[in-house]
Amino acid sequence: MNEIKTTRRNFIISSLALGGALVIGTRAQAATVDVSPWDLPNTTGSAEFTPWLTINADGSVIVRATAVDIGNGTLTQIAAYIKEELDPVWDQIKPQYASTNRDYLEENVYSGPKVGGALAYFSGRSTGPARMDTYLQVAASARERLRAAAAAAWSVPASEITITEGMLKHASGKSGGFGEFVTAAAAIQLAEEPKPKDRSQWVFLGKKHPGKVQLPEIVNGSLIYGVDVIQPNMVYAALRQSPVMGGTLKSFDADAVKSMPGVLAVVAVKPGDNVPTDLKPPFPFGVSTAQHAVAVIAEHYWQARTALDALPVEWDDGPGAQWKTTQQMNDAAIAALDKPGEKVEVSTGDFEGVFKAAKKTVEGTYLTPYCEQAPMEPLNGTAMVTPERVDFWHPSQHSQMAYMVAADETGVKPENVFFHQTFVGGGFGRRVFSDDARMVVAVAKHFPGRPVHVIWSREEATRQGRYRPLMAGRLWAALGDDGYPTALQGRVSGGPGFFVSGINDTAITSMLPNVQIESQTVPFHILTGPYRGPGYNSNAFFVETFLDECAVAAGIDPMEYRLNIFGKWADIGWAKCLNEVKAKSGWGEALPKGQGRGVAIANWGMGGKADAGTTVATVAKVEVSKEGVLKILQIDLAFDTGRIVNEDAVRTELEGGTMFGLNMAVNEGLNIKDGQIVEGNFDEYPMLRMADMPAQINVHFGGLSDNPRFNEIGEPPAGVIGPAVGNAIFAATGKRIRQMPFRTQDMSWS
Amino acid sequence: MKILRIIGIIIVVGIVLFVGLAFLLNQRPSSPFDGVAAVTAPQYPVEEASYVARLADCVACHSLPGEAPFAGGLPMGSPLGVMYATNITPDKATGIGNYTLADFDNAVRRGVAKDGHRLYPSMPYPSYSKMTDEDIKKLYDYFMFAVEPVAKPNQETGIPFPLNMRWPLAFWNVVFAPTKVYENKPEQSAEWNRGAYLVQGAGHCGSCHTERGLAIQEVALDESSDAYLSGALLDGWHASNLRGNQATGLGRWSEDDIVQLLKTGRNKHATVFGTMLEAFNNSTQFMTDEDLKSIAVYLKSLPPRGADPQWTYDDATKVAFAGNDMTAPGSSLYLTQCSNCHGRDGLGRGALQPPLAGNPTVIGQNAESIINILLNGAGRMVVDGVPDSYRMTPFRVLLRDDQIAEIATFIRSSWGNDAPAVTAAEVAKLREDTDPTSDHVIVLNMR
Amino acid sequence: MAVNLMINGKATEVDADPQTPLLWVLRDHLGMTGTKFGCGIAQCGACTVHIDGVATRSCQFPLEAAEGVKITTIEGLSPDSSHPLQKLWVEFNVPQCGYCQSGMLMAAAALLEEIPNPTDEDIDQYVSNICRCGTYTRVRAAIHKAADMMKA
Fold first, then answer.
1. CA B277 from chain center: how many Å?
2. Which of A161, A256, B214, B400 would you call most buried, defined as having the most Cβ atoms within 10 angstroms of its Cβ?
């Protein structure tokens, strides 16, 4: 590929005048300074090679990141691409977030289709092939231009110059750092763009696995997350939104709190109070709509929060209050499975005929509740709004969306909106839709001229989520004489915003000749959004628990059952993963009573095709006491992303995704009372801790197929751990777990 | 207060049938205000009138969180069925707008409604009967002229026939409910007498803190019996002993400690929680310093009841923690779940996080409150309309019954505390009986 | 109300409501944002600091109780990130998003002060912080390794 044009236009535009770029934000200089670490000017003697890459006089290399690092190592991966092709000193590579403002002004220089497409700012797929090729090309071009500049200075052929660890060298003994040639190199236009190395020649990618570039700032507490932003003259705001989603603010008594210490203002936010733009956001603006809210603004956060607690507020709950209990909603979702789905997602062959003729059929009904992403950093943001300009510091998962939302809320021209991406204390999908971004700006615009730092309490964040949807699913299979499925029918239902991925596009659906998958929307008022592995995290549980029930009905070992089914699938990764976990987990070894192993396999992102997405097979070994107390003893997983580049980064994401999925399956579930979310904090919405960890979480690499793709890894493990544990509980106790969270299910046995 | 015990009612019914004094039924009691001209305008400054309402804490039961004050509707569970506090706003159709002063007096001090039906003694009229005529007039003033009328029909009780018949209560009243205004004891100081008046009368402290007999009557209504205010169980809480017992009562508290607790919700010994939290949020914090002092003087005059063991701090637990000795059952759970706020020394942190060492509630024989607070947390104190920042978190979701029992047993037997162990079965029962409290702030606004 | 604090060996005066949680005094009044806000109810541990050497969740620690005690925050764990745990956190690539890690490090550091050679069970008890990214296994490994290093 050769899509980056290193034209003159690109290198004469300095990023100097255009705010928004950032070096890893730290407050290293002084503890209390109100620095804005996101607008560091280029140092003297630096030159921009392309909007993606600037080299400084000291030889350090600034590379602009177009995907947010939410803990998944995006910045490190980008640095690794630069290291591979340009070979600066590792510590001298300084990733910055690319400016959304500049992207807008310069025809989507960072987000156009050629450099990763519409998802260019999105967290997922952030280091995928399109991005990788872009960065490798950018680095290779810079390398050649540096060599050309040095060749001219030394009067030697460029081909005789080597670059290692940030030094250009010639056999004659001449040598120099990048800094010496920066100005000259940046002015050079190559006749022909160099072709990046072939994968077989890589010396860094796939060979080295560096830790995250921001680790030094994390371990001394200096990394600046959104909540850590301090700006001159800044004030704080505490927020309360309509307890029932979709409800409206009836009244509040600002006089009751205005004399409390530090209180500056009480402001109301209502949806539709924005000044729309004609921007084309990556997600429709509708997903970012603000709820009715009231906020107290004060000099200090605790003052704001104390006054908010004391503020008398009346709400009109609206129609959402009709949902009195969780059970009522669960029943409605399950009742929706009793009739044919309003939408047929997949229909192949003659599933009805096969079912009619079948001697044996299996049926199972499953349910997954609303879940909150619960990133450790509560939702927050800081915005200073004036009629002419908006500055917005925010831990977004999607800075382009947040940038456009800020313009759309205020009516300030996009070129005068400056979005400053901060570090992010976890996302898991919660910070994608930018409803939080809109709320921050909507509050701040009522207090113009001073930066307003809005911080959600944990309770507010938990009860005002954009949740993983409540979903119910029912599956039917016709089994042949050999016990294996010959036809499959599936129905799923859920509140608005549920997804069918993981059931409409998975291997079994694609492989079987007679399949029908239907879906049905239930009119719940609860707002939903992405949550690690959207749709997949429910549907994989339905499908893989059901497959286990089919294996039991057929009297076949669940591992053998899957191997026999997926061994016939065109994607060899499935069988490789199963064989790997079968061999490594001790599958088949005898266990004492009350212990059991369970297996599950699924793929995130395959879209119904072989050699696509990421496959994960997980075996869980559990122990259940007679009283029904569950303990996870061991987890083994194998995966196939095709190929990988940073083994340790892959391992850490798979460990993390497994823990996330385990917590989802065992612990998470929001309850509804009179239309409101009941749970507010970690005392009611429990999280796995150190003491709950299995003794072993083993990530095995033997499932990799070496198919030429580098697929993502963050979301795939989250879908399989739940059914693996549920199936293990069945093996241990004979009790089939069909509903999350498992902690509410009776697992006792005798 | 939500108090009714089935046995009590059955016995009352039995007594009634046995005695058969049916002629008493529905007889309207007499009030000193009979024949008084209709009150058409406030007779007292509103501050004085509302102060009596604060003392009597009517709002706690006669309001629903988030709704208009005094409009009733609060469900009170009882083994017989649920009953609902009534609308006592001056709405003519659904409230008490048509009550004369005498009608009002009969309801408050004698438990008889305008139409002659008898109130359940969850309305503390046996205590209110000690209130002076003047205080009743002020209270009437307050409800007629300071409270906004709210049209909200009363809800029928869920108590089934025949137990829903009210007439037997007339006999209960004859036996258990005095109708005498408090009389000063000349041998006691004015301060003591004021305290006694407040505690026994409007404050109706005994409704919670005095144990009840088989007919659910408070076994004592004043200091003449050492059962008075010696602690009692209700609604999943154990209202603590307010007598002079060293370990489990107020023996180690100074008068100032008592005043501080009632004024600020906290002192160095304890923090208000449970139903006392509501009494504090709605009532005691609004009392004058003089009245609080009087209450303290009166309470400190109550001698200990029964055996009176001392409590002294024992640092063995602290030493064990320092040496990483986790052999005591529950110590490791305490370390992880509790020590951050209550300290490894069990001494809490300032006045905001109460000590567990020597805390009367922790040491009390009955562990109901400790189990309840571990399961459901403590709600939030609201001082001057501002909810506080420090609350006990509920562990209902995070911990199993056996774990809560282990922690409760640990804190009841550490730092010199010496109270019986708690079993998982006790926790399981209370878990079922109690609903989760939320951290939603409940501020009942008067006026 | 002015309160005198001793933070990371330095005397500091703060003027704030005495009931303000120490967490917000550090973050908001003093600009020391290394100590994180996660839950506000002493559940998650992101706000862990040392009070007289004991790991303490500062979100439920009132300012009025902070006078006269020695407070250590992540900024004061070591002057130059040289604490063995800090080094191993980098070496083991422990953090993912990193938000909970200040608290995790402070809890782990206090543990090693109290129990130089902790068992898995000790770690479970003393480091009960929440990490939503799921870094627990690496945290545990790094604590064990640090214990070995500090012994040597």
1. 9
2. A161
Please indicate, yes or no, whether residues B366 and B420 belong to a single structural domain of this protein. yes
Cβ count within 10 A of residue A629: 13
In angstroms, the CA B107 to CA C145 distance is: 74
- Tell me the shortest Cα–Cα distance from B55 to chain C, in angstroms: 28
Phi-psi region of A123 (alpha: psi -120 to 50; beta: other; left: phi over 0): alpha
Q: Which pTM value belongs to this model?
A: 0.92
List the domain range (segments joined by +) for residue B227: 190-300
Q: Are residues B171 and B194 in the same domain?
A: no
> Among C60, C114, C124, whose Cβ lies nearest the Cβ of B341?
C60
CATH topology of domain C2-76: Ubiquitin-like (UB roll) (3.10.20)
Torsion angle of C-alpha atoms C113, C116, C117, C121, degrees rounded to 10: -20
Give the number of domains in chain B.
Answer: 3
Tell me, yes or no, whether B440 lies in a domain: no
Given an 8 Å threshold on Cβ–Cβ distance, is C125 in contact with B332? yes
C54 touches chain B (CB under 8 A): yes
- Interface contact flag, C57 B352, Cβ < 8 Å: no
Q: Which chains touch B (3 or more CB pairs under 8 A)?
A: A, C
Name the E strands within A627-729: 630-640, 672-673, 676-677, 696-700
Asked if the structure places residue B305 within a domain, the reply is: no
CATH class of C84-151: mainly alpha
Question: Nearest by CB to A376, which of C28, C40, C132?
Answer: C132
The answer to whether the Cβ–Cβ distance between B352 and C56 falls below 8 Å is: no
From B300, B329, B347, give the residue that closes a domain.
B300
Domain boundaries, chain C: 2-76, 84-151
Cβ contact (<8 Å) for C128 and A689?
Answer: yes
Q: Is the ipTM of this complex over 0.85?
A: yes
My answer on whether B112 and B248 are in the same domain is: no
How far apart CA C151 and CA A439 sit, in angstroms, is 51
> Token match 């804490």: residue?
B57
Domains of chain A (ranges, CATH numbers)? 8-219 (3.30.365.10), 232-316+379-455 (3.30.365.10), 327-371+467-744 (3.30.365.10)
Say how many C-beta atoms besides its own lie within 10 A of residue B316's C-beta.
Answer: 13
List per-residue pLDDT tens for chain B, 447 residues long: 455 566 667 776 666 665 555 555 556 788 999 999 999 999 999 999 999 999 999 998 898 877 889 999 887 766 666 778 899 999 999 999 999 999 999 999 999 999 888 888 888 999 999 999 999 999 999 999 999 999 999 988 877 777 777 777 777 787 777 778 999 999 999 999 999 999 999 999 999 999 988 877 899 999 999 999 999 988 788 999 999 999 999 999 999 999 999 999 999 999 999 889 989 999 999 999 999 999 999 999 999 999 999 999 999 999 999 998 999 999 999 999 999 999 999 999 877 889 999 999 999 999 999 999 999 888 889 988 888 888 899 999 999 999 999 999 999 999 999 999 999 999 999 888 875 533 333 333 332
- Look at residue A316 and give its three-state secondary structure: strand
**CA A95/CA A282 separation, integer angstroms:** 24
- Per-residue pLDDT tens over the stretch A330-343: 999 999 999 999 99
The reply to whether B373 and B343 lie within a common domain is yes
- Comparing CA positions, the residue from A446, A445, A728, A749 lying closest to residue A626 is A749
Q: Is residue B115 part of a domain?
A: yes
In A5-93, which ranges are continuous DSSP H helix? 8-12, 74-86
Kindly state whether A123 is in contact with chain C, defined as any CB-CB distance less than 8 angstroms.
Answer: no
Please, are residues B153 and B104 in contact by the beta-carbon 8 Å criterion? no
How many CB contacts within 8 angstroms connect chain B with chain C? Answer: 44
Task: Indicate if B206 and B255 belong to the same structural domain.
Answer: yes
Same domain, B211 and B256: yes
